[in-house]
C-alpha cells in the first residue's frame, strides 16, 4: 500500500466513500418508502453506481497495478439484476392481485383474477 | 477327467437351458437325462478308484489367506450318493418329459433341475465343511424355486416359502456348527475332521457342535419337530418330488449325519438327540401317513418316516446300524422315486390324487398298477424285495442293542409298530387304488401311461427286485464301498442274505405284515363309513399351525422393534442420531476432560462480530421459522450460509468460501424444489398443542441446545490450541515441490489424498443414484398433488406463462421473457467461469469440485427459467452417464500410474512451452480432477432433476383427496 502514488490513494478513497454514501441512501430508501413497488427502486443505486465505484476503487488499489477483469463484476451484475427485479415485481403483483387491492392493474390478457380455491370435488 | 467336471457340467448346461425355448420338452428332457446318465456311467467307471476306502481328492485354491480351498473329495459314500443323484436324476428327467404339460415352461424346470443336481453333487463331494454348507444352502435355494415352480398357485408359494424358511434356518445352524467344529479341529478340511473324532467328542464344545449340526440335518431331512414342511412341499410338480424327496434334498440331512458319523457319534447325547428324533419321526410319519387322502402326502409322510428310520439307525451308535442306514438310503431312493413317479402317472391320467376317489384302476392301467404294487411292497418291507433287507437289519439292531432296559424293550415294539403302520399305508397306496370296483366319477378317463413314462419306474422296480432277491451279488460290493467311509476304517460283519432262519427280526416282519393287513381292512371299513378321516390324537397337534404362529410372532416382534429402532418418521431418527452422538461425546469427555488451549488469539474486529451477529440471527430465525414458514426458514438458512462463506473468505480460505457458496446455491435450490411436495401447513385448523406435544418440543429444544453448545465448545477447544503436530505444514511444504501446484487444498484433493477423493466421488455417485431410485417411486401426499395454490389462482381461460411457460402465446409470455433470455445468455458465461475455475484449480482457488457445481448451477438455472420440457427438448444431459464417465476417468487416471510402474494415483506434471501462453504446466491430476468434475455435475443434476421431474409426472389422484381441503373451507 505504501508504494502507491498519492493520487491513486485519494481517488480510491473518494470512490469508496461515494459508494458508501450510495449504499446508505439506498438502505434508507428501502426503509422509508411506503410500498413494495416504490421500494424496488432504491437498491438500483447500490448495484449500479455503487458497484461501479467499489470496483473502480478495487482496480486502483490492486497490488499488481490496475487490472481490467474486475470490470466483469459490475458487468455481470448489470446483466443479472434485472432477472431478480422482474421476478420480485411479478410475485408482488401476483400477491396484490390475490389480495384484491383496488388499485392493482389487471393482467394484460384477461380481466380481474379471482382466487379460485374451491375444493377438488367441485372443480 | 476332473471331478470339477461333475459339478460344472450340470451347472453350465442348466444355465444354457434357462435360455432355451421354453416349451422344447423333448430336446430339453433328452439333454438333461443324457447328461445325467452320462455322468452316472462315468461315475460307475470310477468304482475301482474308490474301492477299499480309497479317496479321490482334487483341490483348487479358493481363499488361501484364511485356509479355505475348494476341495472335491469322492470317497465310497460320496460315490454312492453321486450315482444315486445322477442315476435317479436321469430317470426323473426322462419321466418329466411326459409328466409336464405342453403349457408348462419346461426350460425353467430343466434348468433348475440340473442346477439342483449340481448343487446336490456339490454337497456330497465337498471336501471342505464351509464349501459343504455353501452347496447345502444352494440346494435349499434351488429347491425353493423348484417347489414353487407353479408360482401362480398359492399352495406352491406357501410350500416353497415354508421349505426355504425351515431348511434355510437349519442351514444357518449348520454353518454355526461347522464353524465351531472347524475351530475345535483347527481345519475345515473334511479329511482332517474325519480323523479327529476323539478330539471332537472330548472337547467341551462338543455339545453345541452336535446340536447345531443335527439341527441342520433334521430340518433338511424333515425330522421331528421340523417335519411339517415336507408335506407342504408336495405342491411341487411330481418329478420334483420324486427327485428331491427320494435321492436328493431330504437325503442331504441323513447324508450329513452319516458323513460326520465317525466324528460325532458314539456318545449318549448323540444317541438321545439323533436316535430320539429319528424314532419320533419314524412313528409319527408312518402313523400320519395312514390317514392321508392325497397320494403324494401319503408318500411324503412315508418319506418322513423312512428318513426317521435312517436317522434312528445312525443314532444307535453301532457300526452295523450305520451300515443298515446306508443300505436303507439306497433302497429308499429306489422304491420312493418309483412310487412318486407312479403317483404322478395316476394323477396325470385320472386328474385326481384323492385316495378315496381312486379305486379299481388295475383294469385301466395294469402296468402302472403292477409297478406301484411291487414298489409299495418294497416300501412295506415284504420279503424278496429290497426294503425287506434293510428293514430286517433294522429289526436286528433294535433287538440286539444294549442300552437302558426300557429302551431295550421299547425299541423293538416301536419298530414293529412303525412297520405295521408302513404296511397299512403301503396297502392303501398300492392295493387300495388299483383294486376294488372301478371308479366312475374320475375327472379324466384314465388309460395306460406312455411307454417311456413307465420306463424309469420299470428300471427302478427291477432294481428293487434284483436287490431283494440277490442282494450280495447285486448291491453287496456297492454297499461295502459306501458304508466303509461312514463307519471309518473297519466294516462290521454283516450278512446280506435273504434267509437267516427263524430269527426275531423275521417274526417281527411277519407280525408287522399280518397285523398290518388286518389293520388295513379295519381302517378301510371305518373310513368307508366316514370315520377316521384324520389321524386320531395327532390331528390336534398341528405343527404347521405352530410354525405359522411362530412366524407371526417373529414378524410381529420384528415390526415392533423396527418401529422403535427405525421409525418411518424422520424426526425420531434425527433425535436418536443426535442424542447418541451427544451421549458418546459425553462418554468420551469423562476420560478426557475438556480444556482450553493457549493459542494466541486474533484481535476481535467490530465488523466481524457484526457479521456473526447477523449470521446467528439468521440461524436462530431459520430454526424458529422452520415450523411455521418454510420459505422464510430456507431464506434465513441461506443468510447463515452466506455469513459462513464470508467468514471463510475473511480467514483466508478462499477455496472453502468458493465451495461453500456453490453448495449453498445447490442446497437452496434443492430445498425449494422439495418444498413443492411438502404438505401445506393448515394454520386455519388452529390446532392447540397438547401438553405432550409441548413437552416433546421442549425436549427437542433442549437436545438441540445441548448438542449445539457441545459442538461449539469442542470447536473452541480445538481452535484455541496450537497444533505443532498437525499434518498441515507437511502439505503446505510439499504441495509445490511434490504435487506441482501452489494450491495446497487442491493438490491434497487430487494428489496427496486422491484415494480419499476417489472414495468420496464414488459415494457421491452412489448417493445420487439412490436419491434417483427413491424419487422414481416417490408418491406425494394426497394434499400436495394439486398444482400449487399460485397456479390454481389463475382462471383456466387466462393465458399466462405461470402455468405453461412455453405453451402460451402473445403478451402472456412476456412475464418470464426477460429472465429467460438473460439466463440463457448467461449459460456460456457460467460455463466459461467453470472452465476458468477448473483450469486454475491446481494453483489458485478453484478445482473440479467447484467447477462441477458451477456447471450444475448453470444447467439448473435453465431448468428454473425455462422449465424441464424446454431444456430437455434441446439438450440431452444424461446425468447418469456423467457420473459413470467421471468415475471411469478418475479411476483410469489412477490406474495409469500403475501401468507406468508407480503406485496408484501418482501424479506426473508435464511442462510445455506454448506460444502466447508461455510455460504451461499440466499435471496428470488434471484428468483426475476432470473426473471429479464430471461426477459432481452428474450427481447434482441427477438429484435436482429427479425432483424437478416430479411435477411432470401424472400422479394418481386418490378419490378422497377433497376431504382435508373441504374441511379447511368449512369454518
Automatic annotation (TrEMBL), chain A:
Residues of the signal peptide: none
InterPro entries listed in its UniProt record: PhaG_MnhG_YufB
TM stretches of this protein: 12-32, 44-61, 67-93
Protein name: Multisubunit potassium/proton antiporter PhaG subunit
UniProt-listed Pfam families: PhaG_MnhG_YufB (PF03334)
GO molecular function term, any single one: sodium:proton antiporter activity
Keyword Transmembrane attributed: yes
Region of interest (Disordered), residue spans: 98-123
Keywords tagged on the record: Membrane, Transmembrane, Transmembrane helix
Transmembrane helix as UniProt keyword: yes
Organism: Panacagrimonas perspica
UniProtKB/TrEMBL annotation, chain B:
Residue intervals of the NADH-Ubiquinone oxidoreductase (complex I) chain 5 N-terminal domain: 63-110
Keywords: Antiport, Cell membrane, Ion transport, Membrane, Transmembrane, Transmembrane helix, Transport
MF GO annotations: antiporter activity
MrpA C-terminal/MbhE domain segment(s): 695-792
Keyword Transmembrane helix: yes
Intracellular or extracellular location(s): Cell membrane; Membrane
Domain NADH:quinone oxidoreductase/Mrp antiporter transmembrane: 126-399
GO CC entries: plasma membrane
Main location: membrane
Protein's UniProt keywords contain Cell division: no
Pfam families: MbhD (PF13244), MbhE (PF20501), MnhB (PF04039), Proton_antipo_M (PF00361), Proton_antipo_N (PF00662)
InterPro entries: CPA3_Na-H_Antiporter_A (IPR050616), MnhB (IPR007182), MrpA_C/MbhD (IPR025383), MrpA_C/MbhE (IPR046806), ND/Mrp_TM (IPR001750), Proton_antipo_N (IPR001516)
Membrane topology: Multi-pass membrane protein
Domain MrpA C-terminal/MbhD as annotated: residue spans: 615-679
Top-rank lineage group of the source organism: Bacteria
GO annotation (BP), single: monoatomic ion transport
Spans traversing the lipid bilayer: 28-50, 78-97, 109-127, 133-150, 162-185, 205-230, 242-263, 269-291, 298-316, 322-346, 367-389, 409-427, 459-484, 504-523, 570-590, 602-624, 631-651, 657-680, 701-719, 757-775, 821-839, 845-865, 885-905, 925-948
Identification of the protein by name: Multisubunit potassium/proton antiporter PhaA subunit /multisubunit potassium/proton antiporter PhaB subunit
Organism: Panacagrimonas perspica
Amino acid at each position: 500500500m505504501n508504494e502507491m502514488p498519492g493520487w491513486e490513494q485519494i481517488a480510491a478513497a473518494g470512490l469508496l466513500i461515494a459508494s458508501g454514501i450510495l449504499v446508505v441512501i439506498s438502505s434508507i430508501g428501502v426503509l422509508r418508502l411506503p410500498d413494495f413497488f416504490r421500494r424496488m427502486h432504491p437498491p438500483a443505486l447500490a448495484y449500479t453506481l455503487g458497484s461501479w465505484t467499489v470496483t473502480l476503487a478495487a482496480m486502483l488499489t490492486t497490488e499488481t497495478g490496475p487490472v481490467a477483469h474486475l470490470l466483469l463484476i459490475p458487468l455481470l451484475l448489470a446483466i443479472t439484476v434485472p432477472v431478480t427485479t422482474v421476478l420480485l415485481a411479478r410475485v408482488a403483483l401476483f400477491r396484490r392481485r390475490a389480495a384484491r387491492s383496488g388499485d392493482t392493474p389487471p393482467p394484460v390478457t384477461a380481466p380481474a383474477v379471482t382466487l379460485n380455491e374451491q375444493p377438488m370435488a367441485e372443480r | 477327467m476332473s471331478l470339477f467336471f461333475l459339478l460344472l457340467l450340470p451347472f453350465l448346461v442348466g444355465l444354457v437351458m434357462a435360455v432355451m425355448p421354453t416349451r422344447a420338452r423333448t430336446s430339453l428332457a433328452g439333454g438333461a437325462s443324457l447328461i445325467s446318465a452320462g455322468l452316472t456311467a462315468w461315475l460307475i467307471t470310477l468304482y475301482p478308484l474308490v474301492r477299499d476306502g480309497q479317496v479321490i481328492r482334487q483341490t483348487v485354491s479358493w481363499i488361501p489367506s484364511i485356509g479355505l480351498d475348494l476341495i472335491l473329495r469322492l470317497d465310497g459314500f460320496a460315490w454312492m450318493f453321486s450315482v444315486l443323484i445322477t442315476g435317479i436324476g436321469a430317470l426323473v428327467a426322462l419321466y418329466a418329459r411326459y409328466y409336464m404339460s405342453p403349457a408348462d415352461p419346461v426350460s425353467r424346470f430343466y434348468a433348475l433341475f440340473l442346477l439342483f443336481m449340481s448343487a446336490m453333487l456339490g454337497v456330497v463331494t465337498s471336501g471342505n465343511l464351509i464349501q459343504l454348507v455353501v452347496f447345502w444352502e444352494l440346494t435349499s435355494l434351488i429347491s425353493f424355486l423348484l417347489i414353487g415352480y407353479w408360482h401362480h398357485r398359492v399352495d406352491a408359494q406357501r410350500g416353497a416359502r415354508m421349505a426355504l424358511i425351515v431348511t434355510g434356518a437349519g442351514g444357518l445352524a449348520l454353518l454355526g456348527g461347522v464353524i465351531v467344529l472347524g475351530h475345535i479341529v483347527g481345519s475345515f478340511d473334511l479329511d482332517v475332521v474325519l480323523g479327529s473324532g476323539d478330539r471332537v467328542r472330548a472337547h467341551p464344545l462338543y455339545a453345541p457342535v452336535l446340536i447345531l449340526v443335527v439341527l441342520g440335518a433334521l430340518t433338511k431331512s424333515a425330522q421331528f419337530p421340523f417335519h411339517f414342511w415336507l408335506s407342504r412341499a408336495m405342491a411341487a410338480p411330481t418329478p420334483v418330488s420324486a427327485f428331491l424327496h427320494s435321492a436328493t434334498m431330504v437325503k442331504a440331512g441323513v447324508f450329513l449325519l452319516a458323513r460326520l458319523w465317525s466324528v460325532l457319534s458314539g456318545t449318549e447325547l448323540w444317541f438321545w438327540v439323533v436316535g430320539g428324533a429319528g424314532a419320533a419321526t419314524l412313528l409319527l410319519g408312518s402313523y400320519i401317513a395312514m390317514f392321508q387322502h392325497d397320494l403324494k402326502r401319503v408318500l411324503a409322510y412315508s418319506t418322513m418316516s423312512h428318513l426317521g428310520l435312517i436317522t434312528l439307525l445312525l443314532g444307535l451308535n453301532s457300526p452295523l446300524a450305520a451300515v443298515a442306514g446306508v443300505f436303507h438310503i439306497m433302497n429308499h431312493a429306489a422304491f420312493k422315486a418309483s412310487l412318486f413317479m407312479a403317483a404322478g402317472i395316476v394323477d396325470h391320467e385320472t386328474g385326481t390324487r384323492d385316495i378315496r376317489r381312486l379305486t379299481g384302476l388295475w383294469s385301466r392301467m395294469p402296468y402302472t398298477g403292477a409297478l406301484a404294487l411291487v414298489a409299495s411292497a418294497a416300501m412295506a418291507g415284504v420279503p424278496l424285495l429290497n426294503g425287506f433287507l434293510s428293514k430286517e437289519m433294522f429289526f436286528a439292531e433294535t433287538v440286539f442293542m444294549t442300552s437302558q432296559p426300557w429302551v431295550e424293550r421299547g425299541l423293538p415294539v416301536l419298530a414293529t409298530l412303525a412297520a405295521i403302520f408302513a404296511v397299512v399305508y403301503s396297502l392303501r397306496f398300492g392295493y387300495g387304488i388299483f383294486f376294488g370296483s372301478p371308479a366312475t366319477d374320475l375327472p379324466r378317463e384314465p388309460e395306460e401311461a406312455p411307454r417311456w413314462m413307465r420306463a424309469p419306474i420299470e428300471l427302478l422296480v427291477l432294481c428293487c427286485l434284483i436287490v431283494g432277491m440277490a442282494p450280495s451279488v447285486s448291491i453287496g460290493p456297492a454297499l461295502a464301498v459306501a458304508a466303509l467311509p461312514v463307519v471309518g476304517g473297519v466294516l462290521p460283519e454283516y450278512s446280506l442274505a435273504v434267509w437267516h432262519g427263524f430269527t426275531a427280526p423275521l417274526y417281527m416282519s411277519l407280525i408287522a405284515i399280518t397285523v398290518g393287513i388286518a389293520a388295513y381292512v379295519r381302517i378301510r371299513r371305518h373310513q368307508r363309513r366316514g370315520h377316521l378321516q384324520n389321524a386320531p390324537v395327532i390331528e390336534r397337534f398341528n405343527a404347521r399351525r405352530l410354525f405359522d404362529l411362530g412366524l407371526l410372532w417373529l414378524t410381529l416382534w420384528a415390526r415392533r422393534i423396527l418401529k422403535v429402532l427405525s421409525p418411518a418418521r424422520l424426526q425420531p431418527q434425527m433425535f436418536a442420531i443426535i442424542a447418541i452422538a451427544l451421549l458418546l461425546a459425553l462418554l468420551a469427555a469423562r476420560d478426557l476432560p475438556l480444556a482450553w488451549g493457549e493459542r494466541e488469539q486474533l484481535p476481535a474486529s467490530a465488523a466481524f462480530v457484526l457479521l456473526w451477529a447477523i449470521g446467528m440471527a439468521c440461524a436462530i430465525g431459520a430454526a424458529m421459522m422452520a415450523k411455521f414458514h418454510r420459505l422464510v426458514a430456507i431464506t434465513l438458512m441461506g443468510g447463515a450460509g452466506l455469513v459462513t462463506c464470508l467468514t471463510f473468505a475473511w480467514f483466508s480460505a478462499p477455496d472453502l468460501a468458493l465451495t461453500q457458496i456453490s453448495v449453498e446455491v445447490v442446497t437452496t435450490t434443492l430445498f425449494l424444489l422439495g418444498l413443492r411436495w411438502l404438505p401445506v401447513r393448515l394454520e386455519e385448523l388452529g390446532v392447540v398443542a397438547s401438553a405432550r406435544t409441548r413437552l416433546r418440543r421442549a425436549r427437542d429444544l433442549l437436545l438441540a441446545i445441548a448438542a449445539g453448545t457441545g459442538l461449539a465448545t469442542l470447536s473452541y477447544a480445538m481452535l484455541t490450541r496450537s497444533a505443532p503436530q498437525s499434518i498441515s505444514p507437511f502439505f503446505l511444504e510439499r504441495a509445490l515441490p511434490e504435487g506441482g501446484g501452489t494450491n495446497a487444498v487442491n493438490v491434497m484433493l487430487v494428489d496427496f489424498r486422491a484415494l480419499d477423493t476417489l472414495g468420496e466421488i464414488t459415494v457421491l455417485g452412489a448417493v445420487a443414484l439412490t436419491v434417483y431410485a427413491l424419487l422414481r417411486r416417490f408418491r406425494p401426499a394426497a394434499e400436495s398433488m394439486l398444482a400449487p395454490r399460485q397456479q390454481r389462482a389463475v382462471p383456466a381461460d387466462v393465458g399466462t406463462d405461470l402455468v405453461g411457460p412455453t405453451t402460451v402465446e402473445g403478451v402472456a409470455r412476456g412475464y418470464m421473457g426477460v429472465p429467460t433470455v438473460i439466463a440463457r445468455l448467461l449459460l456460456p458465461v457460467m460455463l466459461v467461469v467453470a472452465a476458468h475455475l477448473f483450469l486454475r484449480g491446481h494453483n489458485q482457488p478453484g478445482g473440479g469440485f467447484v467447477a462441477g457445481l458451477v456447471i450444475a448451477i448453470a444447467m439448473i438455472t435453465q431448468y428454473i427459467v425455462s422449465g424441464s420440457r424446454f431444456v430437455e427438448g434441446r439438450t440431452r444431459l444424461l446425468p447418469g452417464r456423467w457420473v459413470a464417465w467421471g468415475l471411469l476417468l478418475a479411476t483410469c487416471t489412477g490406474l495409469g500410474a500403475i501401468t507406468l510402474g508407480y503406485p496408484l494415483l501418482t501424479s506426473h506434471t508435464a511442462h510445455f512451452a506454448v506460444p502466447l501462453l508461455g510455460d504451461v504446466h499440466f499435471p496428470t491430476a488434471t484428468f483426475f480432477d476432470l473426473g471429479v468434475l464430471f461426477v459432481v455435475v452428474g450427481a447434482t443434476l441427477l438429484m435436482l432433476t429427479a425432483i424437478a421431474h416430479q411435477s411432470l409426472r401424472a400422479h394418481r389422484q386418490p378419490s378422497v383427496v377433497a376431504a382435508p381441503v373441504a374441511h379447511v373451507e368449512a369454518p
